[in-house]
Amino acid sequence: xxxxxxxxxALSTSGLMASDVAAVEILVFDCANAGCAxxxxxxxxxxxxxxxxxxxxxFTIDSSGAPKHLAIPAHKPLDFYAEAFRTTAPNRTRIGxxxxxxxxxxxxxxxxxxxxxxxxx
Length: 121
What we know:
Elements: E1 4-14, E2 23-30, H1 36-39, E3 53-60, E4 68-73, E5 77-85, E6 94-103, E7 110-118
Parallel strand pairs: 1-7
Antiparallel strand pairs: 1-4, 2-3, 2-5, 5-6, 6-7
């Protein structure tokens, strides 16, 4: 069994107010055949059949500011991709996105901060 790391997800925004964001979708890709440039190159990284999705989650933003955690494989280079949404509704439109590459060790949660830049809806 592979080691598991816990990523404590945090976001910073550029061109968006933090209050604009109601939900964030996190997609984690194997960095071996990716990289943030590739992950961000298309309309959605899920459209690229060459990317290996490792984990995904949809988090709602709450007023408590409680950290959100995502369990992922440890000791493996990964691309953390995030899309921000103004609403939690199923037909939501993306208002921003970002990516960061990280390799996390097993054990205590490690902070991963993704900078979300505003995008055209």
